[in-house]
């Protein structure tokens, strides 16, 4: 016996109810809806970041705002600078993948300048910047 098909009105009602449940869930998490018009170049940059990082568009936009204006809850700045340059260059010259090198630094408890754990991407970029100085 075939399932009865739904009418357009029933499908719209189901879609509207689902959207309202989703919006309420987002509000309960403290999120607010935001509609913006952006230049195509901005959309291209967001698409590129989505491909590189796998992050969602809202995550990319939120991160960009935090970087541009400072995080709403900034992490404390270390009192003395960390002498990472020699260590990073030494780690870069060791065998293994960038992920392995990042894992070694994280296992030693060494954090980035922002106090976050190392990833393959940020250690590679840090070493590249050090070599270009």
Automatic annotation (TrEMBL):
Lineage: superkingdom: Bacteria
Name of the molecule in the record: Recombinase domain-containing protein
């Amino acid at each position: 016996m075939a399932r009865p098909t739904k009418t357009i009105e029933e499908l719209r009602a189901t879609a509207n109810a689902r959207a309202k449940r989703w919006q309420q869930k987002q509000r309960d998490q403290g999120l607010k809806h935001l509609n913006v018009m952006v230049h195509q170049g901005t959309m291209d940059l967001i698409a590129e970041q989505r491909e590189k990082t796998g992050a969602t568009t809202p995550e990319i936009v939120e991160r960009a705002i935090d970087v541009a204006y400072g995080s709403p809850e900034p992490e404390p700045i270390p009192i003395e600078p960390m002498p990472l340059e020699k260590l990073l260059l030494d780690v870069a010259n060791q065998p293994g993948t960038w992920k392995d090198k990042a894992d070694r630094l994280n296992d030693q408890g060494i954090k980035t300048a922002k106090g976050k754990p190392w990833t393959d991407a940020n250690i590679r970029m840090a070493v590249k910047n050090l070599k270009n100085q």
